[in-house]
Design goal:
Elements lengths: L2 E6 L6 H10 L4 E7 L1 H6 L8 H9 L4 E7 L5 H7 L3 E5 L8 H12 L4 E5 L5 H15 L1 H14 L3 E5 L3 H9 L1 E3 L5 E3 L2 E4 L1 H7 L10 H14 L4 E4 L6 H14 L3 E5 L1 E2 L14 E2 L2 H14 L6 E6 L8 H13 L4 E4 L7 H13 L5 E3 L9 H6 L4 E4 L2 H20 L3 H4 L5 H4 L2 H4 L1
Helix pairs in contact: 8-10, 11-12, 12-13, 13-14
Bound molecules: sulfopyruvate and magnesium ion.
Length: about 425
């Protein structure tokens, strides 16, 4: 009897999966692989069922002889263990990002005489409906809100990218690449930056854009995405306003707000000491955090305290003292910021904080110390890495150059070859 292997990374079984099993069983006994949580996430499929529930679901299917856990999206582990005669998959993996996985598996099985069988992908109304419903469920507040805490437990680093509009939200939601290690990867969460949200409105980053406007940005993004949202809450404003906003954010399904320990007219941290900025007292800021935590109704929402001591050159001891105090006050995480190119002070802070506290999530924003890779941060105990402004910084220079060139040429022909074809832009949203 030949062994036929197929890998599932789904929470819901539809006709497409049943068809795969039926076709596979013509070739031998069918073993289904259940892709592990961390690998599902990297393939842009966030699990809404536990791995135990998924295993039980796959095991209950007619024609399935056994279920194994697949902990490597490239199939290395299962193929080494099972040496299946056939690997069966929908033929949709012959194109797009998954193509790289197929090529890898083909090489693996060919080495011992195995074979891939591509089954024509089932495009049906029912399959589309199941997929759409799953996406809609993931976008609901109760699912989206808790997803950040789930990700912190499931993945070594929560890779978070800035989004400031529906379109940039879609880029963060949908972008998948084949990484240097041959595995697929994607962003886990979105950061709604005060800098980018203000810049997009042509305004300075001084808490001038009010919460009502910020909520509109969040809503635009939420309407077209499912990934969790971390809001840059600036200073959090008056405590009386902050407690109100915590409830609003929770209700919308935002996962976390990060507030910084500054007071008075807030300016962007990357100005450092070039402009006048005042740090809040430990007592006052701790009280604001505690008030926010008391106002919170769900268990999932996170209030993360951002420490500006290194930015304002108040020293490491001050930063650590604040981290301990804010954690005691109830903060669900600590963001430490720096504008130095050299990451040493960030590493020192994280290492020393971790000696004292093994669990409270740590957040960094490597705009200046951008040479550090995510795995190095993880080795220093960091849980969330935020790419805070790169999409905005990518777009502005190109838009400006394009405007200048059209103005110089008195026509648009000169810029056209550098632009996306207009036949593509009119279909962009449907094809993303
Ligand atoms: C933002 O993105 O608005 C931030 C991070 O607060 S920073 O710009 O580095 O201060
Ligand atoms: Mg900000």
């Amino acid at each position: 009897m030949k062994t036929v292997y197929t890998c599932f990374s789904t929470d819901v079984i539809h006709d497409g999966h049943k068809n795969i099993i039926e076709q596979a069983s013509r070739y031998g006994r069918v073993i289904v692989g259940c892709l592990s949580d961390k690998e599902m996430i990297r393939c842009t499929k966030f699990p809404t069922k536990t791995i135990e529930e998924r295993i039980a679901l796959y095991r209950s299917l007619e024609g399935v002889e056994g279920v194994v856990i697949q902990d490597d999206m490239l199939y290395n582990d299962v193929i080494e263990k099972l040496h299946p005669d056939y690997v069966v998959h929908g033929d949709n993996w012959k194109s797009g990002a998954e193509k790289a996985v197929r090529e890898h598996v083909e090489r693996l099985v060919a080495s011992y005489g195995g074979q891939i069988i591509d089954i024509p992908y089932t495009y049906s109304e029912e399959v589309k409906k199941v997929d759409d419903r799953l996406r809609e469920r993931l976008s609901m507040p109760e699912f989206r809100r808790k997803r950040l805490r789930q990700l912190i437990d499931m993945t070594p680093v929560v890779k978070t990218m800035e989004a400031h509009s529906g379109l940039t939200g879609l880029i963060v939601e949908k972008t998948v690449v084949k990484g240097l290690d041959g595995r697929l990867d994607q962003f886990d969460a979105m950061w709604i930056s005060s800098l980018c949200d203000s810049t997009d409105r042509g305004k300075p980053d001084i808490e001038l854009v009010d919460m009502t406007s910020r909520l509109r940005t969040i809503n635009d993004i939420m309407e077209v995405t499912t990934k969790p949202i971390i809001l840059d809450g600036d200073t959090g404003g008056l405590t009386e306003h902050f407690v109100y906003n915590v409830r609003t954010l929770e209700r919308m399904g935002v996962s976390a707000v990060i507030i910084e320990d500054k007071t008075g007219l807030k300016k962007n941290s990357l100005f450092g000491t070039e402009v006048e900025q005042s740090q809040d007292s430990i007592e006052h800021f701790s009280a604001k955090i505690s008030a926010g935590k008391r106002a919170q109704l769900s268990e999932d929402f996170m209030i993360i305290a951002r420490i500006e001591s290194l930015i304002l050159e108040k020293g490491m001891e001050d930063a650590l003292q604040r981290a301990y105090a804010f954690t005691e006050a109830g903060a669900d995480g600590i963001m430490i910021h720096s504008r130095k190119k050299d990451p040493t002070e960030i590493f020192t802070f994280c290492d020393r904080f971790r000696e004292w506290d093994k669990k409270t999530p740590l957040v960094v924003v490597p705009t200046s110390f951008n040479q550090v890779t995510e795995d190095i941060f993880a080795a220093h105990g960091v849980n969330i890495v935020i790419y805070a402004n790169q999409l905005m910084r990518a777009a502005f220079p190109v838009m400006k150059q394009t405007a200048e060139e059209i103005l110089r040429s008195h026509r648009a022909q000169e810029v056209d070859s550098a632009l996306m074809p207009f036949k593509d832009i009119i279909r962009l949203i449907d094809t993303l």
